[in-house]
Specification:
four-stranded mixed sheet; 3 helices; alpha+beta
């Protein structure tokens, strides 16, 4: 599935459709070294990997996120992962904005059909079962094809 990083937003974020509290966030816009990024910090606070292959703390403290990045959660039973936009200011992760039907944009690797289905889900107008994404495995396959 490839490597990614873990993200810990500063405030609780709820699924915009089913209102489930989402506690586990991942993303692929950072260095993808299984780092743990905590909102309000410039550098990763941890690396979830065996100590003998982790990078030195000094090098980890030099790492930074891009100014804008996307994080996602598979933490609810909805047919799509929940997305949020992260923003850094002065090299520090300062803002996390939940993606809703009002601010959703088509992602770079997302087809027109995938975007339409995700937008309908966010609007509550699509038949989620018809998307063929009802299981966690299928949701992760969507993530792999879109969130590269």
């Amino acid at each position: 599935m490839g490597w990614f990083d873990w993200y810990e937003p500063g405030n609780a974020i709820m699924c915009p459709v089913c209102d489930t509290s989402l506690t586990e966030w991942q993303g692929k816009d950072g260095p993808c070294g299984l780092f743990v990024w905590r909102q309000g910090n410039a550098a990763p606070v941890e690396q979830k990997i065996e100590k003998d292959i982790s990078i030195e703390v000094e090098k980890r403290e030099e790492m930074r996120l891009p100014d804008k990045f996307i994080i996602y959660s598979h933490g609810c039973s909805c047919p799509f992962p929940v997305l949020a936009n992260g923003r850094c200011s002065g090299g520090i992760w300062m803002e996390t904005e939940l993606v809703t039907s009002q601010n959703a944009v088509q992602l770079h690797h997302e087809t027109d059909e995938q975007f339409t289905q995700r937008k309908q889900w966010l609007e509550g107008t699509g038949a989620a079962a018809g998307f063929g994404l009802g299981t966690n495995v299928q949701k992760r396959i969507w993530s792999m094809s879109v969130l590269k």
